[in-house]
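Subject: Sanity check before I submit

Could someone independently write out the structure tokens for this chain? I want to compare against mine line by line before I put it in a report. The sequence has 337 residues.
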Amino acid sequence: MSEAVGLAPLWPAPPEGRERAAGQLAPPPDFRYVGLYPGPRLRLGILAGTLGACASLGASLCHAPVGRGALFSIAAASVAIVFAGLGGPRVPRNGRQDGPDGFEMAIVPWGILVESDHATRVLRWAAIKRVQLRMIHGSDLGTPTTRWSLVTVDALHERFSGRTAGAVSLDRLMVYLGAYADEASHRVALDLEGTSAGEGPTEPDCESLLMTARTWIATAEASHLLDLPASGYRSPAVRATSKGAIEVLGAVLRDRTAREIDPRPFAAVVAAELHAVELVDELVALVQSPHPIIAAVAKVAAHKLGVPTSRVGALDEVSPFLLGRDAEALKDWASAR
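---
Independent answer below. Compare away.
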């Protein structure tokens, strides 16, 4: 088996071979989870825990990941990762990787989680300056293959490095990192026009978002704009959508215009409350948004319309990037009928 090293360009050509249109949002991240590990050694405790997790692998594949630690247990359940971790290239020691094995990391659409000393640090896109990817290529019986991916993350005041077996898809992240940070900073609208904003991103938004959207549905304005029955003929518990509502809400959910006050979460709540199953695809497309509230609201809305967790992921995947009150408000909405 031969081996060669290739370094991904710092600013590769934009995916799909075209520039992002001015005033438009960047394409969403094209990965759901990338687990990275220090190396080449694994601590015995991690190895033992991983082998134990593999014993229940069949059952774990039937359930969505739950809680912060679940983001790391996804990769920990892979036998291939266990034995790949026993060899391979050494990861550079930089920044705060103070120890023989450094830190484990998970790259998700909303930022990076760093696991160390039984705690999880949350790095949002605004805290990341640069992501670099270096791949180690090889061939097996003449078949080209990518053996390892080495990732270096430069945060504001430190650097983290990790590796994983095989190839990873981080091209969009390297190109659009700045755009993702900008989108994640957008405020959440409390209407469909994007004229009224919540208190975020430093204050909780989801309680007011849910209350405002659910209250608005019963107004004459909503009845007229969405072509709904008059409020006197429908109750909050039994709501139905209309062709007009599908068109209006769908246009908002599909809009890729970069807006400082983003109305898509509001539209997602309204769609779920009106049982607009015709908009499932639009909601699913938003669960990869780099804005954690947009992604979280879209996940819950899709779940409420019957989309399985295996397709859109669990709310707990986004929870580390949400304020506590926002996460609780969305959990309450998810369990409400």
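---
OP: Matches mine. For the report I'm noting this point. The chain has 13 helices and ten strands.
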